[in-house]
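User: quick one - fold this with fe (ii) ion bound?
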Amino acid sequence: MIPDLFEGERRDVPLAPGAILLGGFALPFEGPLVAALGRVVERAPFRHMVTPGGHRMSVAMTNCGAAGWVTDRTGYRYDGHDPESGRRWPPMPDVFADLAVQAAARAGFDGFAPDACLVNRYEPGTRLSLHQDKNERDFEAPIVSVSLGLPAVFLFGGSHRADTPRRVPLAHGDVVVWGGPARLRYHGVMPLEPGHHPLTGGHRINLTFRKAT
Ligand code: SIN
Ligand code: FE2
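Assistant: Sure. C-alpha cells for the protein plus fe (ii) ion:
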C-alpha cells in the first residue's frame, strides 16, 4: 500500500497574515475529543436551522459553551439557550477548550478564551457558502476551526466576497486559526465528497471556537 503522506500530516501552513493551518494539531486530543462530542450531541442534538431568508441549512448544527450560534427567521445571533430544548447549551468540555486555547497560542494568539463552540455536521453533497464570522461582539479574538472525520476542501477567501478563495484541503485532525488582520476573511466549504471515516462514519464534523460575547 502506498502511504498517504497528507493524511494527518503535522505541518504548519501559513494561509495569510493572521491565518494558519495547523496540520494534525487535534490528533493527540482525538479520543477524549470524540467522546466529549458524543456527550454534547446527546444533550443538544444536531438540527437543521433556518436562515432569516427561510432556507433550511444543509449543514446540521449544535453548540456547546456559554453562548451558541443560532439562526432563525428573525436573524443570526448568539443565544445562551438551545431554542429546541429551552435549556442552556451543554458546557464546553475541558478537552474542547484546551485544544482551542493551545491551537490559538500556537498560531500566535495567546490568552484565547472561547465561550462558544459551534459544531457543524456535513454529509456528502453538503457545502457551506462563503461567509464572514461577524456575529461576535468584537473581532479581537481569533476563530479556531477543528476538522474531524471525512476530508473537505476549505475555501479561504479575502476581505471581499468576490476575492477568489484559496482551496485548502483539510483532513481529520487539522486545525485552522484565523484572527488579527485575517479575522474577517470570507471562508466556506466545498461540497463534501462521499466516504467513510472510522470515527465519524459518512460525515465531516467541524468545531469552530469563538469568543462571542
Ligand atoms: C464555519 O465556517 O463555521 C465552518 C467551517 C468549516 O466547516 O470548516
Ligand atoms: Fe464561519
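One thing worth noting: Residues 1-5 have pLDDT under 50 and may be disordered.
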